[in-house]
Amino acid sequence: MAMMVTNKQGPMARNKVFARVCLVLCGMVATYVILSEIHLTRECHYFCTSDDLPVCYLRRSAVLIYDQDVAAHEMSFSQNTHPRINLADYATEVASGRYFDINCPVNHYWPRVSTLDRRNSCAVVGNSGILSGSRCGRVIDKHDFIIRANLAPIEDYAIDVGQHSHLTIMNFETLFYLHNNLTQTAPDTFWHRTYVERLRYLNDSILWYSKSTLQRNSSFHLKDVVHVLKDYYHLPIQLAYSWRPVSVEKFHGLRHYATTGFNAVIIAKTFCNHVTLYGFYPSNAAENGYHVNHHYYEDVEFDYVGSIHNFKQEFTKLKEFEEKGEITIVTDLCPGGRRKKVTDHVNMAAMLDTKFAFNLNKDRLKEIFELSDDTDDPDGDEKERTVAHIPKDTPQQFHVKPEVDSEQVIKDIQQRSEISRTGGKADIGPVISGSGVDISRKDKAMSADGARRYQGNYGSIVQQE
Q1: Are 216 and 334 found together in one domain?
Q2: Are residues 53 and 170 in the same domain?
Q3: N or C: which end of the chain has fewer CB within 10 A?
Q4: What is the pLDDT of residues 367-409, one digit of tens each?
Q5: In whole angstroms, what is the distance from residue 238 CA to residue 47 CA?
């Protein structure tokens, strides 16, 4: 009998032990889940390229570049956000001392994002007509890194402005034109084709939006642009944005809004050992008396001391930088160059058409978006990248298939895009959670009325054709 009691108690005891173990394990799992949902903010003052021998940039000057394989719907374009880490990562970083370091490696806290490497010789190419006839193209292309702005054409002007580009800065106005012409006009229209061909010259370079991504639906515009360029035209372009909208006026004593070109110069100084400027000139008159077009590709009437930008004050500031040995400004002709009269090699019909389209769009911009002064940027700077070595007439890579109906393509871009304007959520912030990374945070999304407002208001741009 005693033996029988012992045998009965044995399984019961084992069951109790098993139940206790399960209870402890469940408690540990529950505790881990609860703790993993608690995040702390990681303060970053400098963004660095890596952990080993890093190059670090002050956070307000940091350019964040998405890897080439990142899809449009995976991009957040979040600004002014710091990494958030859970308690486990917090304990690890405190123990290693990393948590108290003001330097943050970008690839650790922003997965699939990088920043700019240090460069020796950089050229910042402006759009001024001072480049017309300069023959500076070869000199510009010899620089290690070339920065342009606002998608100015280069294909037919390479002898004066060069053909290579590594970083292309653009402001809101340029983003609006780009988004509108890629998503709201038919693929066979003039300006749609024009923008695609200009972007073809970017090849695998970086297209950098330097203004706020939270205003005027800029993040949605950027995602749409990525979607069209990658999914429909298969262009290997990388998209970049600034951790904080670039605005350098107060740091350099400017009484007006800084132009896109001036902003590009200031950022270039942070990662370039030697910066040389081409195409920066605040006047319509050269020193020898010849007329200087406003842009090297067109001539329009322009007030260089306006209510928004003061080109002359900026040029004076740039000359001060040059006197300190911080930059070099080239306004002279390169070997073989000559100043041209205003009528030399100017397509007057194209010039008038461009001028009309610009004025039309400018008025339309004010009407639709009620733009503030800081986005009305008529300055000159260019952009584009190394020419892609692919024939222009390759329909599968740079053109929508000819048998596809144009209107259906636009409708498909608008309706089947992976970016939802009315879904109620947007990805906007880096979050470090355990071994994985969740880059999802709630943000204000467009209302249905807002979506309708931004659709169908671009009809006048079709007249550009």
Answers
A1: yes
A2: no
A3: N
A4: 433 433 333 333 433 333 333 333 344 333 334 444 445 566 5
A5: 19
Closest by CA to 184, choosing from 192, 195, 193, is: 192
Question: Tokens representing 47?
Answer: 């963004």
Buried b / exposed e along 69-90 (16+ C-beta atoms within 10 A): ebebeebbbbbebbbbbbebbb
> Which tokens in the block code for residue 396?
């599968």
Cα(183)–Cα(410) distance, rounded to whole angstroms? 6
Q: Which domain holds residue 277?
A: 117-397
CB 291 within 8 A of CB 285: yes
**Secondary structure of residue 243 in the 3-state scheme:** coil
| pLDDT score of 340 | 63
Strands (E), 91-205: 103-105, 113-114, 119-125, 145-149, 167-170
Dist. CA 104–CA 262, nearest whole Å: 27
- Give the CA angle between residues 112, 117, 122 to the nearest 5°: 135
Q: Which two structure tokens, joined as six digits, stand for 77?
A: 């374009």
The DSSP call for residue 61 is: G
